[in-house]
Amino acid sequence: MIQREVTIGRAPGSDILFGAECPYISNNHALIYSDGYRLILKDTSTNGTHVNDNCVHHQSIVINYGDSILLAGKYPLEWEQIAIFFPVNPRSPMTIV
Description:
Elements lengths: L3 E6 L6 E2 L12 E5 L4 E5 L5 E3 L2 E3 L3 E4 L5 E3 L3 E2 L2 H5 L14
Parallel strand pairs: 1-2
Antiparallel strand pairs: 1-3, 3-4, 4-7, 5-6, 5-8, 8-9
């Protein structure tokens, strides 16, 4: 069961919004959602997403706090941006609050 879903992209309604200075990021590039226990990134883009140097394209992958996430292989998605929507428990960084 999906408890929360966050949109990432250049589309004006995106929860995490990237601007025109990032032309390789799709309007609806990716989603991050929680199933209550883990965070899952789903790539919905044209140019893919790299998670810890693994290319994810039209797939879903479990992400953990501290993973390196590059949208279109070029633009970092910072954990500070993700934590706005999915706060991390300071005692256990792998636990979503």
